[in-house]
Amino acid sequence: MDLELEDLENTIQDDDDDNVQLTSAELIEMMEEVWVNEKFAPEILPHKQEVVDCVLGQISYMEKNLETLPSTDFKKGIHQLEVDRIRFLVASYLRHRLEKIETYVLHILKEEEQRGEREEELYLTEAEQQFAIKYKQDLEQHFENATNFYPGLPFEDWKSHIVAPNMNSFVFLKAKTAVEGVVIDPSRDDDEVADLTVGSQMILSYNSVTDLVKKGDVQLI
Amino acid sequence: MFCEKAHVLIKELSRNRDALPPYNTDLLNEINTEVKQLITQNQEDAQISEDSRVMNHASYLPTVKIRHAAIKRNIRCILAYHYNRLKCLRNMRWQFGSILPPDVKSNLSQSEIEWFSKYSSNLVQYMRSIGDEGINLAVDLKPPKSLYIEVRCLTDYGQFELNDGSVLLLKENSRHYLPRSECEELIRQGVLEHVV
């Protein structure tokens, strides 16, 4: 994998001339990290649209370059496969997010609203937000169709039992920076803490490392 | 017994985990009638106990409460039935694309068909909005292992044009060596079979 990436860089020059200087290898690494985090976190994480957009730009750039290569070139196949792999990465990341949005639609929309009120950063991109709202409307419409045989039924009841992600589920993680005093199980009183050293791997309950994941201090694995 | 039919409905659901049996209109109608009956009975009893309270008689409150619980349970079961069917339908959207196979379609209710087309267009709209020209999330469902794969054709599909312009004829039992990205959709639709 690394070899191929290096190979890629020889043929494809970086097109990142933004203020953040990233080689494409670093960019892909970042994308991988984002993808793995999203895959293993029980709740939806803040969106990383910049990364996704960068990677997509990279993909179309690479594809354009590939077209100029003759199809007899042996390297073309390898590069094409690499492009496919990167595309899978992005697509899988976005699919995971969509799946979470669909499953926890009410929960997520409610949280987003609260975040908007507190003027915090939103977790969903604009497009995802639209998707979520429309999905919720369609679902409600369908439920109403199913229960409109008698007007005035207490069918709004289902909204009081919102499907929410299990924040207490356990995750495997790897510390990227040293963090001291991570409180394990904040609901208990005996204040058991854990210190994370760089590169250490742990299994912890997700809710005790939520902020660390979002800040990027730890990486889910 | 209350809610027995709703229970049958849920059992039907759990027997068909990943398949969509015909929409059970008859059973749902029966449950609806049961709910309606319960509501009417409740209203009558509530009326009586309202009147009788003045005369200091025993109230029907416990009966009414039990019936109310039964109504709620019935509705929960109905919603669970519908929700799980939608989930199944959603997976099919990812599997088959926006056009459902006719045998699945005949098993759906009108409302489900409407939901499906709405979901489909919602999804397409979302996929179009990603990046500059959009990205099709319904391909690349599995991590790519190799660029080309060997496939066997299961049906007489006819002509199939590849991205590079070459056309090949997909006949039953013929074997091809094709780019994975291009035949992935056909594999999911059951036209091709991946030969491992």
Automatic annotation (TrEMBL), chain A:
<dbReference type="GO" id="GO:0000727">
    <property type="term" value="P:double-strand break repair via break-induced replication"/>
</dbReference>
<dbReference type="Pfam" id="PF05916">
    <property type="entry name" value="Sld5"/>
</dbReference>
<dbReference type="GO" id="GO:0000811">
    <property type="term" value="C:GINS complex"/>
</dbReference>
<feature type="domain" description="DNA replication complex GINS protein SLD5 C-terminal">
    <location>
        <begin position="165"/>
        <end position="221"/>
    </location>
</feature>
<dbReference type="Pfam" id="PF16922">
    <property type="entry name" value="SLD5_C"/>
</dbReference>
<comment type="similarity">
    <text>Belongs to the GINS4/SLD5 family.</text>
</comment>
<comment type="function">
    <text>The GINS complex plays an essential role in the initiation of DNA replication.</text>
</comment>
<keyword id="KW-0235">DNA replication</keyword>
<dbReference type="InterPro" id="IPR036224">
    <property type="entry name" value="GINS_bundle-like_dom_sf"/>
</dbReference>
<keyword id="KW-0539">Nucleus</keyword>
<dbReference type="GO" id="GO:0006261">
    <property type="term" value="P:DNA-templated DNA replication"/>
</dbReference>
<dbReference type="InterPro" id="IPR021151">
    <property type="entry name" value="GINS_A"/>
</dbReference>
<protein>
    <recommendedName>
        <fullName>DNA replication complex GINS protein SLD5</fullName>
    </recommendedName>
</protein>
<dbReference type="InterPro" id="IPR008591">
    <property type="entry name" value="GINS_Sld5"/>
</dbReference>
<feature type="domain" description="GINS subunit">
    <location>
        <begin position="69"/>
        <end position="145"/>
    </location>
</feature>
<dbReference type="InterPro" id="IPR038749">
    <property type="entry name" value="Sld5_GINS_A"/>
</dbReference>
<dbReference type="InterPro" id="IPR031633">
    <property type="entry name" value="SLD5_C"/>
</dbReference>
Automatic annotation (TrEMBL), chain B:
<feature type="domain" description="DNA replication complex GINS protein PSF1 C-terminal">
    <location>
        <begin position="145"/>
        <end position="195"/>
    </location>
</feature>
<dbReference type="Pfam" id="PF05916">
    <property type="entry name" value="Sld5"/>
</dbReference>
<comment type="subunit">
    <text>Component of the GINS complex.</text>
</comment>
<dbReference type="InterPro" id="IPR005339">
    <property type="entry name" value="GINS_Psf1"/>
</dbReference>
<comment type="similarity">
    <text>Belongs to the GINS1/PSF1 family.</text>
</comment>
<feature type="domain" description="GINS subunit">
    <location>
        <begin position="44"/>
        <end position="130"/>
    </location>
</feature>
<dbReference type="InterPro" id="IPR036224">
    <property type="entry name" value="GINS_bundle-like_dom_sf"/>
</dbReference>
<keyword id="KW-0539">Nucleus</keyword>
<dbReference type="GO" id="GO:1902983">
    <property type="term" value="P:DNA strand elongation involved in mitotic DNA replication"/>
</dbReference>
<dbReference type="Pfam" id="PF24997">
    <property type="entry name" value="PSF1_C"/>
</dbReference>
<keyword id="KW-0235">DNA replication</keyword>
<dbReference type="InterPro" id="IPR056783">
    <property type="entry name" value="PSF1_C"/>
</dbReference>
<protein>
    <recommendedName>
        <fullName>DNA replication complex GINS protein PSF1</fullName>
    </recommendedName>
</protein>
<comment type="function">
    <text>Required for correct functioning of the GINS complex, a complex that plays an essential role in the initiation of DNA replication, and progression of DNA replication forks. GINS complex seems to bind preferentially to single-stranded DNA.</text>
</comment>
<dbReference type="GO" id="GO:0000811">
    <property type="term" value="C:GINS complex"/>
</dbReference>
<dbReference type="InterPro" id="IPR021151">
    <property type="entry name" value="GINS_A"/>
</dbReference>
